[in-house]
Please model this.
Amino acid sequence: MYIGKRRNVPLQIRVIFYDKDNAESHDLKDFSDLEPLLSQADGRKKWIDIIGICHTDVLDKLGKLFGIHPLILEDIANTEQRPKFEEFDHYLFMTVKELSYQASAAILFERQISLVLGSDYVISFQEESSPLIEEGRNRLVSGATRRQEKGPDYLAYRIIDSVVDQYFDIIEKIADNIEDLEEKMIQDLSGKPMRSFMRMRRLLSVLLHSVFPLRESLSRIEKRDSHIISQEILPFFRDVYDHSVHIMESVENQRDILGGIMDVYLSYQNNKMNAVMKVLTIIATIFMPLSFVASVYGMNFKNIPELNWPYGYLYFWIVIVCSVSLMLYFFRKKKWL
Amino acid sequence: MYIGKRRNVPLQIRVIFYDKDNAESHDLKDFSDLEPLLSQADGRKKWIDIIGICHTDVLDKLGKLFGIHPLILEDIANTEQRPKFEEFDHYLFMTVKELSYQASAAILFERQISLVLGSDYVISFQEESSPLIEEGRNRLVSGATRRQEKGPDYLAYRIIDSVVDQYFDIIEKIADNIEDLEEKMIQDLSGKPMRSFMRMRRLLSVLLHSVFPLRESLSRIEKRDSHIISQEILPFFRDVYDHSVHIMESVENQRDILGGIMDVYLSYQNNKMNAVMKVLTIIATIFMPLSFVASVYGMNFKNIPELNWPYGYLYFWIVIVCSVSLMLYFFRKKKWL
Amino acid sequence: MYIGKRRNVPLQIRVIFYDKDNAESHDLKDFSDLEPLLSQADGRKKWIDIIGICHTDVLDKLGKLFGIHPLILEDIANTEQRPKFEEFDHYLFMTVKELSYQASAAILFERQISLVLGSDYVISFQEESSPLIEEGRNRLVSGATRRQEKGPDYLAYRIIDSVVDQYFDIIEKIADNIEDLEEKMIQDLSGKPMRSFMRMRRLLSVLLHSVFPLRESLSRIEKRDSHIISQEILPFFRDVYDHSVHIMESVENQRDILGGIMDVYLSYQNNKMNAVMKVLTIIATIFMPLSFVASVYGMNFKNIPELNWPYGYLYFWIVIVCSVSLMLYFFRKKKWL
Amino acid sequence: MYIGKRRNVPLQIRVIFYDKDNAESHDLKDFSDLEPLLSQADGRKKWIDIIGICHTDVLDKLGKLFGIHPLILEDIANTEQRPKFEEFDHYLFMTVKELSYQASAAILFERQISLVLGSDYVISFQEESSPLIEEGRNRLVSGATRRQEKGPDYLAYRIIDSVVDQYFDIIEKIADNIEDLEEKMIQDLSGKPMRSFMRMRRLLSVLLHSVFPLRESLSRIEKRDSHIISQEILPFFRDVYDHSVHIMESVENQRDILGGIMDVYLSYQNNKMNAVMKVLTIIATIFMPLSFVASVYGMNFKNIPELNWPYGYLYFWIVIVCSVSLMLYFFRKKKWL
Amino acid sequence: MYIGKRRNVPLQIRVIFYDKDNAESHDLKDFSDLEPLLSQADGRKKWIDIIGICHTDVLDKLGKLFGIHPLILEDIANTEQRPKFEEFDHYLFMTVKELSYQASAAILFERQISLVLGSDYVISFQEESSPLIEEGRNRLVSGATRRQEKGPDYLAYRIIDSVVDQYFDIIEKIADNIEDLEEKMIQDLSGKPMRSFMRMRRLLSVLLHSVFPLRESLSRIEKRDSHIISQEILPFFRDVYDHSVHIMESVENQRDILGGIMDVYLSYQNNKMNAVMKVLTIIATIFMPLSFVASVYGMNFKNIPELNWPYGYLYFWIVIVCSVSLMLYFFRKKKWL
Model:
């Protein structure tokens, strides 16, 4: 799993001015173009989308432009950042982890998305271009969003909501993987499936560590009274909060299932051993005495009366067959067969 | 187990007007009939029962009619919804999961019931027709409910209470199943009972995830001061709350019992192995030395004095019998026999 | 264990009027005698003791007489009730579980005792006649209680205190049982002791589920300011609360000990297996090579030089004895012997 | 471990009057001497030390003299008491458990010390004479305490602090024992070390149950505003509180270590079994086929061509040596050797 | 791991006066030089750095000079101190544990750093010279810190922050070690890797016990309103707090991973045993019957017809080969081969 490596993503700055009726998109080549452009906003709401958070100089300049605290800028640039929420007088800050799951290799990819939400603007910072934000952007530009009249707070909600929705997808896929593995593991008692389960457990762990602080943040948003998020939009955030709680419960549930599966697996291994040992014991119990009897009559004592009986060999076989039958009966009674 | 698939249930709208003395039931064919009908309520209390939440257009219209928040409508339509409680100025919203248990196949079925509770009406939304609500409706229409003078808040309590009562039934059945399995598992050490126990654990988990948020909701109802639930009815909700706590403890208890059973099972498997190994060891310990002795006298050395003794063969058997007796004594002393 | 079956206990109503100096006991035949009798109380404190809670009609009438909420009456009649505490304006309600332990069969019996405590009366409801209450009654009537001047709140405390004291006895007995079992289990590795331990764990669980809600109730009594329990008596309730906390810790402690014992047991089973396997391996390691050598000289090759040596047989035994000694030395060095 | 047996300790009453400069000690023969003595206090601070809490009549009289609540007197006399803290208008009450550890036998001894702290006096009740208090007393009398000008609250702090310090010693000794055992356990896989570890776990449990309620008490002392403990002395109590938290963390830590050791132990037992099984399997895999081959040439068929080959016996040995070499190679490749 | 031994470190006193533009460093030979030196501060901020906390006389004098509570001085001198935070009127006190990790030997070294933070000074106490503080000092003296205009509160933040940053490094190294071990453990089923994992678990435990109280302290700093830490600096402390939470989650995560690895390891050991047992069983199942058959024809009965068949020996081999093939087929079908 990728965690925290700083990827060198080329800088992209994209600005969207939008109001109830229209949305106007600008792709900037250079940061210096931003300030003149913003002066053309004309009271429209602004969405500034920055791709490539490794360009710290740009972050610094943007920070100065919008009055963002230097520590926040550090948080934006640091991809090992734990999801967090900070409230300031004139803006809110939030980071979330976008996760994408490659089911075939059981790998989770992490992309950090940070949001700075002001009263009439939202700035999004992407570690690298995220399809989720791309889609939201397209919908806004194409006018597919009915609620365009709503402010940047609604926009922020949409972004967070789509991230959380993706968590649902991921946990569902992981649950499917676990179910698949559960079926297969019965066939393979070599201990290898345990490693796959361990992998699943780690993925759940990553998911939990992404969603747990997010839930915390959302709970704080819900409780505090910030003028930046309007009363009308608050229920939407409460809704995402509920979803995050739901995800956490699902993760816990899946972990619980994994724990149970491991117990079953151990029990199967034990049972396999029992089965193997039974075969061995049955074979040994039958053939050791027989071999002994055969050895006895292979002895070279001068005077072994049985050897001279005319039907000695026949009697020998009769004794053998009887004792084997007896043993088989005994094993059957003991439910070993 | 069915979770979250949208079933295509034909729409039914049923309206009951009732007061202290009478109850009048109407089955509507079409949503457009609802508004005119409601104008005939004449101050009587209203219970509007919607079956088939997949008809989102109806939900939308109803939402507009009663001023229900769009997010709540989404929650009603989403059967993967976690049970929740929301408080608004002029109505309360609550979803619960009705569960029914098919003991033979150890399957739980889930049906979502949502309630919108206003000061003089209650709207119930059923995923598909639930016998619980059917029964409550019949009782109300037939006048079997003594407390008909009570308002929609009491009606809502009755519905939630019957759902919770069913949880009690289910947990009792699961407990019975677990007890049955516990008896059977001693006979079958193949690891298969473990899977049955796992199944039980998952059922308990589903139950827990239905009742836990319900308990939370009820606790919030109890604490807040809503004008929609009257002081007189509050103790009833507190009572359901107590029941939900009781159920959670029972689930925890059953999980604990399951955990203990698995420990016992593992211990039994170990013991079985011990028993098998003991048999093998006894057999080998007895017959390996005997076979060796027999082999010795099967050797073809020119000069083996014993072979020429007149009673050599007899002596041989005496030695064999003595040593076997000795070993058996030894095993008995070691408590292997 | 008996839980929740409604036993058909004949109704008994017993009324005691008492003040500082005297106590006067009346056994009533019929409920209709109660009201006239109560009018003779003359300002004395009243203890009304009802045995047999299956007589719901009596409960209903009593409820009307003393103004008890219908839900409380339901709680009194329902023996599957979780212990609870409810506060009303003019009375307090509390249920506790009296437990009695039959150590020989490791069975817990449960009897529900409910108390309705008013400012000058206490009503006790017994599922069936409890020796604890019987004893308290005798003491009161015979004047053995020094604190007779104290009110019904003290009486209620005494009843609850004696129930809690019995929990101490029970947990001590269970601890003794566990200790006994711990000694025995070393002898019996068949997995059967595990079931006994499981039984103990369930008993502890029952105890916990009786004392946990009781502790909660007592904590609420202590915190709230009810005029029904006087300031003077509050420290007594705090004392019972401390006891209930102590019991919970003891139960947790015993559960912990049980958990540890199970680990030890598993370890003993493993060790037993190791011991058995070692014997097998030693036997096989010694006799398999010997048997092979003996077999070699039992072969019928035309030309086996050793067979014709004059002391071949002697040499054979010398080789055998040497190699066995060597192996024994090797096993001793490996600490297998 | 000794818990709760009432020991018959002869009564000792010792009174110390002290102020900034002097300390004056009196040993009383009889309780009746106490009251006259106290009247000679002359405004000096008083420490009354009672040894032998089984003399309940003395406790009662003392209780009346100082106005101590009867329940508190019961708590003082009851050595099975859970450590607790109670606040009254004119005095504070506290019990702690002095523990002493006999490392050789891994036994903990418990002595209960109760303190009643008034504004100008402290009364200590000892189950039996405790060296800790003896030492504190000597220091006070001999003037070795620099802070003699401080009041009874400081004295109480000193006593509690010395008890808590002893907990540190004990946990350190237990940690040493655990470390010793960990080294030894590798040699002894018989399951016996598990019992020693269990013993350690119980000792930790006793320690935890002594320190946990103490921590609670100290936290309450710190938070409440009692005129009996002066502002100047409060930081000292906060310090003991910190120590108690530290001890609890250490206990948790040691429990965690014990848990880990048990896992390792189980793993070692498993590995031992693996090693034993490997030896067995190697022996069997080598000698079973060899024995078979030897048996074949011991058969008495009329016509076995190999038997008549001139170098048949030599070829036989060549085949044997080759196949053994092959098997050994195979085992080495499989890392069994 | 080194814990709590008092090392005899020679005393060093280093004073830095600094303001926005300059920093002036003084190395003192003797404590008596300190007071005169401080009088030359001229309103500049002061950082007094004491190395060697075993010199309690110096601590005492310093305590008097700055009015530090005696208990705090004890805390500074006691290296077994749990990290803590105390707030006083004119200064704040904090201890942290600097940890350094020697990955090769898997050893953690602990150094205690205490800080006394006043409004215009910070005093740092080092158990022995720490590279972290050395570096911070160099940066300050050389003017490499841009934020020199900030006060002692910022300085204190820098020190704590660098300690916490080192925790991140350590946990990352431990995580690497765990990953390495996980790879290796598959090869070595002797139980030895378990001990390494145990060691890792203990290291994580030490880390947790260092960071947990630190997090608590930081949370209290953030919440309280102390005039000593300015509003401007508070966000920095909140940032360290976030880091400490992050570390705790990482530790929990690593512990979880360790737990999972142990499960996998146990499962691998079980599987290994299964594999060994299968080989044994296959060998025994094939050769025991064969040996029996060979023994039969080694018997010396007078009349064994098969022995006289002309192709008896050939038939024997045909039977042998067929039955071996059959068994191999059977084993393959059972997936044992």
Summary: The radius of gyration of chain C is 35 Å. Chain C has nine helices and seven strands.
